Amino acid sequence: MTVPRSPAQAASHISLLVRLLVAFHIIIIIASNYLVQIPIDLFGFHSTWGAFSFPFIFLATDLTVRLIGKHEARAVIRRVMIPALVASYVVSVLFDDGRFNGLGALTSFNGLVFRIAFASFAAYALGQLLDIQVFDRLRRRQMQWWVAPAASSIAGQALDTAVFFSVAFWHSSNAYLAQHWVEIGIVDYVIKLAVSMLLFIPLYGMMLGTIVGFMRRRENAALQT
Question: What is the pTM of this model?
């Protein structure tokens, strides 16, 4: 698929896409770190609202690999990690337990929130790298379009969930999370998979078709000028 008309245009296009993806990833990580502090009971199981937001990142990463390659997807992850760690800590401290605590909360170190931010940092890096690797290998085998995003989501989110909940909440100072983190992690993973398979995989297919169609129309228009 040839998109822009020159190497300079191609580089500019990829650079813009990478910047947009970096911003999108950071926003989702911040939101998920906030939402993971808010527990919910789902059909009698313990979980958090963060389970519904984080799969957006896997959708964006898989589209990145499909459209511009795994090296650019890895570049997004490298650019996201440190800003996301800092921003996650700041936002989570300001909104600890789902309520605004005022700017004064930043004057003291919050160990629980730092653990959550660091766990998110580690889980994001490992989970996304595995997602990219699995997705890229399956994509190259020319399987049906849904196989690569489905398999990479299963593998990437399993690693992401295991790393995040074990690092963030094992022997946590939050009694509820320390007691229920294994159950919450399992339910969180099941919810992420359900959301991914029922919503994000079809959405991935729709977005991929729309983007590819748009790029082809631009290419055809460029060839006619």
Answer: 0.75
